[in-house]
Design brief:
Number of helices: 11
Distance between the termini: 51 Å
Shape: globular
Helix content: 40-55%
Oligomer: single chain
């Protein structure tokens, strides 16, 4: 019996070390986010190049790659279960069909995620399942594809990860609802013009604002510096394709050196080399 007790104690010790190491990981990322202007790389829908988007394996791979933040798409089923899914329907990304807001979670459990059109063994994760993987290890950008704030709040509070999340939405009313319920949450509003940065700062006091390449200009960068906010920009699409074609070219650094300090990408492996 003595050796069994020793094995149990050893297992608990290693579990403690794992938890502590994980917490150190996310604390380091938060410190970087809040107190530096260092480049932060965000994996769009997790590491979706080699695995199904918004899947648990894609989340694990993004963490392994060393990105700073994982972007996940948040939706709610007909019966109130918070899940990861980008599209309004499950048609493109799963073996099933239908509008996710009209489907019960029991049906979603029968589906498999697709990757590049082929069925995999992966299932649609719940937000709770995803946060169990990310907790203490990495920050998460919560891309809200739903206005069902209460359902999302219930999961976030139960998982005790509020300070590891960024809440993002183009709808400022949804973000305001989160900030009212979670005053200490990190809110990241989307802006469509340079002058909206001032409005975003006044309304949310954010640490970061999302901008579009169309107004990624010296004026926008100067405005962000004035208010002490990070600029989040997407490399999705043309910029990522260029990065894949010419991964070692200095142009990528020059593009970032214009002033953005957070870049969201579908090819995080390449951008992490610039950190």
């Amino acid at each position: 019996m003595h050796w069994i007790k020793k094995r149990i104690l050893a297992s608990l010790f290693f579990l403690f070390l794992f938890v502590q190491f994980g917490q150190a990981q996310v604390d380091e990322i938060k410190e970087k986010f809040l107190k530096t202007e260092e480049l932060m790389v965000i994996a769009h829908r997790a590491a979706n190049q080699n695995f199904p988007e918004n899947s648990i394996v894609a989340i694990e791979e993004a963490i392994r790659m060393g990105v700073d933040i994982i972007e996940l798409d948040i939706r709610v089923t007909a019966d109130g279960v918070v899940v990861l899914m980008h599209d309004q329907t499950v048609d493109r990304t799963t073996t099933g069909t239908g509008d996710i807001e009209t489907l019960d979670y029991s049906y979603l459990q029968t589906l498999n995620l697709l990757h590049k059109g082929e069925a995999t063994k992966e299932k649609i994760p719940t937000l709770e399942e995803a946060l169990k993987v990310t907790k203490g290890r990495i920050m998460v950008d919560m891309d809200m594809k739903t206005d069902k704030v209460e359902e999302v709040l219930k999961v976030v509070k139960a998982m005790d990860v509020v300070d590891e999340l960024l809440f993002f939405d183009s709808d400022w009313d949804v973000l305001a609802a989160f900030q009212t319920k979670l005053p200490d949450a990190f809110i990241m509003p989307r802006t469509y013009k340079t002058r909206e940065i001032k409005k975003a700062v006044k309304k949310f006091n954010p640490r970061a604002v999302h901008i579009d390449p169309s107004f990624y200009t010296p004026k926008t960068v100067a405005k962000a510096k004035k208010y002490g906010v990070r600029l989040w920009i997407n490399a999705l699409g043309d910029v990522d394709r260029e990065m894949l074609a010419n991964p070692d070219q200095e142009w990528a650094r020059e593009w970032l050196n214009k002033g953005a300090t957070m870049v969201q990408t579908d090819v995080p492996r390449f951008w992490t080399k610039l950190k």
